[in-house]
Amino acid sequence: MEKVLGQILDELKLMRHDLDSLKADVATLKNDVATLKTDVTTLKTDVATLKTDVTGLQAGQQEHAQILRALEHRAQENGARLTRLEEKVDSLQGEQAAFRKEVKEQLAEFKEDLLYVSKKVIQHEAKLMALGR
After folding, report:
1. pLDDT digits (tens, 9 = 90+) for 98-113
2. What does the DSSP assignment read for 61-129?
């Protein structure tokens, strides 16, 4: 009977050891679960931060798109102004050429008139000199 009691005691000790081992495993699992919960909470916070960042980036992207459209519109306006300015310059150059031509023609006429008057003055002076002799 003592032998049976000794065997039972040995079995109880083994069971006690197994129970202690199971308790340690459960404690480790609880610790791992707590760590996982903390990690999940951290991930949720990171995801929320990323969502906020993405929203900010989208707003910035929309602002940049608006600025780009405004710059494109301004470039088109400047192009149209440049075209009008080029047309005015071309028109002024045409007017300048016509004015130069007119001035040259008037100058040629003036020269002819001046020569005619000079010849007449010389003729009159010759007649006056002939009369004065």
Report:
1. 999 999 999 999 999 9
2. HHHHHHHHHHHHHHHHHHHHHHHHHHHHHHHHHHHHHHHHHHHHHHHHHHHHHHHHHHHHHHHHHHHHH
